[in-house]
Amino acid sequence: MNRLLLLCFALLISISSCKKDEKLSKTSTNKRGLIAKKAMVVSAREEASKIGAEILKQGGNAFDAMMATEMALAVAYPYAGNLGGGGFLIYRMADGTKGALDYREKAPLAATKDMYLDDDGNVIKDLSTVGSMAVGIPGTIAGIFEAQKRFGKLDVTTILKPVIALAKNGYYITDKQEKRIAHYDSMFRAVNGKEILYNNNLKSGDQIINTALAETLQRISKNGRDEFYKGETAKKLVEFLQAKGSIITLEDLAKYEAKWRDPISFQYDDLTITSMSPPSSGGVCLNQIMTMVEPFDLKDYGHNSLKAIQVLVEAEKRAYADRSYYLGDPDFVDIPIKTLTSEVYLHKRMENFSFKSPTPADSISHGDIVGYESDETTHYSIVDQFGNAIAVTTTLNGGYGSKLYVEELGFFLNNEMDDFSSKPGEPNYYGLIGAEANSIAPEKRMLSSMTPTIVEKDGEFYMSVGTPGGSTIITSVLQTILNIHEFELTMQEAVNAPRFHNQWLPDEIRMEPHSFDKKLIKELEALGYTINEERSPIIGIVDGILMLDDGTLEGGADKRGDDTAVGF
Ligand code: DON
Question: What is the reported pTM?
Answer without folding.
Answer: 0.94
